[in-house]
Design brief:
Two copies of one chain form a homodimer. In chain A, strand 5 and strand 6 (143-144) form a beta hairpin. With 177 residues, the first copy, chain A, is α+β, with helices and mostly antiparallel strands. The first copy, chain A, has a six-stranded antiparallel beta sheet with strand order 1-2-3-4-5-6. In chain A, 31% of the residues lie in helices and 28% in strands. At the A-B interface, strand 1, strand 2, strand 3, strand 4 and helix 4 of A face strand 1, strand 2, strand 3, strand 4 and helix 4 of B. Strand 1 (47-54) of chain A pairs antiparallel with strand 4 of chain B.
Chain lengths: 177, 177
């Protein structure tokens, strides 16, 4: 009886252990690691905050969109951002447009190529208290990148802004009129 | 009597002439010359079509927004654009961001500076039949540029696209996912 009970316990631990590992590997609800941030539904319909370009290794052109709470805060100059603010940064390959250039007097036209990735910042001052009130996620082809190191790098980079610009609330982007 | 009548006619011509010149100089209802295109109310809330950069003399970074009719057509790949489609192109000064660069490993960050101008394209295949179905306007600080040569140059440039890409319906921008 003792051996039977021990065997059953071992089996139960094994089964539970295997399913727990499987759950950890599966992108549960397709959310980011560390923060559990999901790609917001309908984000592509959101209003534009601003545009930017990262040269160097990134070599992208990007747009930053915001949900209603975030855009309202931007327009009112309200900082820190209220809880519920969500920012979505879309980065596309920066590519020249030979078609457009043939219309212009000189090669000068660059457009958005393929979508590289989408990064999401969610403001929740309680849930994300350990990361300045922001939770982060990076999405490629609609799927959350499951690398915790990459995901934690979001906050590491945004946190550097605090020393440079304490009023920015860890947000690089300003609203463009 | 003859002299009086002639004098009256001269006066009438003078008054009419002066007021006509004044009307031409005044941005009547703040619309573009040639096409009578106004800056659409609430355009800054519209959805994003794509982003781009013009180097060279323009040296800008830009966003193209569309009203509901235009964005729906873009997403469905519908060409020509239906009447009522309106596109708004915002161009900002392309400027480096020393603040952002100090966070990144190398200088690489460019952001949107001051708004340079806003260009508007309105699709109305009947009203603008002589210009491929599109009416144009350029706005600086919210006011329609009253230069007819500049305004007609919109169509001259967009019309060049027809020979290169007949399916584009004179629109340079493609929708970015």
């Amino acid at each position: 009886m003792q051996r039977l009970a021990t065997g059953g316990l071992t089996l139960a631990v094994l089964i539970f252990g295997v399913s727990a590992v499987a759950a950890a590997r599966r992108p549960a609800q397709n959310v980011s690691p560390v923060y559990g941030v999901a790609l917001p539904k309908g984000y592509r319909d959101w209003q534009l905050v601003s545009v930017a370009r990262e040269a160097g290794k990134n070599n992208d052109i990007r747009a930053i969109l915001g949900n209603g709470i975030a855009v309202k805060a931007f327009r009112q100059g309200k900082r820190p951002f209220p809880d519920g603010s969500v920012l979505v940064r879309l980065a596309w390959r920066f590519q020249s447009s030979p078609r457009n250039d043939s219309v212009f007097p000189a090669p000068q036209s660059f457009i958005a190529g393929d979508l590289i990735n989408v990064q999401v910042s969610v403001k929740d001052s309680k849930r994300y208290a350990a990361s300045g009130g922001w939770g982060y996620g990076q999405f490629e082809n609609g799927a959350a990148n499951q690398d915790p190191v990459l995901t934690q790098a979001c906050f590491i980079c945004h946190a550097k802004l605090k020393a440079l610009d304490g009023k920015a609330d860890l947000v690089f982007t300003d609203y463009s009129q």
